[in-house]
Amino acid sequence: MLNALTLAALYFVVASGLTLIFGLMRIVNMAHGSLFLLGGYVGFSISDSSGSWVLGLLGGAIAAGAVGLALYQLLLARFQNQMLRQTLVSIGCAIVMADLMLAFWGAETYQIEPPALLDRVVRLPVAGGYSTLRLYVLAFAVIVGGLLWLLLNRTRLGMMIRAGVDDLQTLRALGVRVRLVFPVTAFLAGALAGLAGVVFGTALSISPGEGMHFLLTSLVVVIAGGMGSIPGAALGAILVGLAEQFGVFYLPTYSVMLTFGLMAAVLAFRPEGLFGVKA
């Protein structure tokens, strides 16, 4: 159960970025998983050379955010409201990024050295000894979710993002500089993916192929939870984490089917998602 919750925390951080750019902005960025992997690789390189985990976390987030911003400004923004073209372009970018990362970092598996404060074992009443790092990952996801909810619902930027999705023309008529609002959101979405990549590389490890795995899982989380809903992404991540971990333990052969079966079941009874709003 604890492993499922900590895995769900990682899924939520990645999916929260996808919620911003896909659920709110309606931008299909299939390179989001590659941003996750890029953040992990850059975080490993910086922390390994500097000896500072915090610098690696910041570096991974900034690098992934910068690349996500570049993808939006140079490519995805040109095809606003053209989801098929956005999908094809972003898939092409994901393939190129995956090959470039493979050429630079190789096919090896890397693990980021955690700070001494996190690299401990704590005694829990029922579970016994458990990694302190995984508990911090869970707390980190709660903090990220709370800050995102406040950003979208209690700040002027959040109101402009939501208003721009609903009625872009009216927002422009009111004098809001939309050209600045959406790029900031694209950078934030990429930075969240990069943060998750560094945290994942610290808690477990990073290797080629992880980006596609997290992209598919994030899509399940966002679609099942509801487009553009932070609480929905949190609940979707928990359900996916539980299905995946218990599936691996009890039904290892069919564990992948449980994850996508969960999405199919949610869409069958609630097509807009658990926390989604009907169009």
Automatic annotation (TrEMBL):
GO biological process terms, semicolon-separated: amino acid transport
Pfam families linked to this entry: BPD_transp_2
Localization (cell): Cell membrane
InterPro entries to which the protein is assigned, alphabetical: ABC_transp_permease, BCAA_transport_permease
Main localization category: membrane
TM ranges: 6-24, 53-75, 87-107, 133-152, 180-206, 212-242, 249-269
Sorted UniProt keywords: Amino-acid transport, Cell membrane, Membrane, Transmembrane, Transmembrane helix, Transport
GO cellular component: plasma membrane
Molecular-function GO terms, alphabetical: transmembrane transporter activity
Topological relation to the membrane, as annotated: Multi-pass membrane protein
Signal sequence annotation: none
The family this protein is said to belong to: Belongs to the binding-protein-dependent transport system permease family. LivHM subfamily.
Protein name according to UniProt: Branched-chain amino acid ABC transporter permease
The species this protein was found in: Hypericibacter adhaerens
Taxonomic lineage: Bacteria, Pseudomonadati, Pseudomonadota, Alphaproteobacteria, Rhodospirillales
